[in-house]
Design a protein that fits this description.
Number of strands: 8
Shape: globular
Strand order of the largest sheet: 1-4-3-2
Distance between the termini: 20 Å
CATH architecture: Roll
Largest sheet: 4 strands, mixed
Number of helices: 2
CATH topology: 2,3-Dihydroxybiphenyl 1,2-Dioxygenase, domain 1
Order of helices and strands: EHEEEEHEEE
Strand content: 25-35%
Mean pLDDT: 92
Low-confidence stretches: none
Structural class: alpha/beta
Length: 127
């Protein structure tokens, strides 16, 4: 047991604090991440910090020269189909939902061209 893991707390004593993504279209990418449900914590000229459920922060870095690619993280939502439809209705082009062994998933390109995968959640109860 570590000092950060009181015996009565069943959660792991560690979590991911920050993940980051480089974007070439800072404003539009920020709008995308806020649209899908992230909350803005701070915004500067070169980066913004957005909060996800559980307290993890996404650091969005303003890099006009950034090359798009697959994001190094994925997102989980309670209602995968509703998220896909909301993105379609907002003018994005999400893929079809694919059924997996554990999760179902779809992908969508955010405005800077980074591919973000959305998974359904199998978590039940407080995390």
């Amino acid at each position: 047991m570590t000092p950060n893991n009181p015996q009565q707390d069943e959660r792991p004593p560690i979590w991911i604090g920050h993940v980051s993504i480089n974007v070439s279209d800072f404003k539009k990418s920020l709008d995308f991440f806020k649209f899908v449900g992230m909350r803005k914590v701070a915004e500067f000229q070169d980066l913004a910090v957005l909060e996800l459920r559980g307290g993890t922060h996404l650091v969005v870095r303003n890099k006009p020269e950034a090359e798009p690619g697959q994001a190094s993280f994925d997102l989980m939502v309670n209602d995968l189909k509703a998220q896909q439809v909301a993105l379609q209705e907002a003018g994005y082009a999400p893929s079809e939902i694919r059924e997996g062994r554990i999760h179902s998933v779809f992908d969508v390109s955010e405005p800077s061209g980074n591919i973000i995968s959305f998974y359904d959640s199998h978590v039940v109860g407080p995390v």
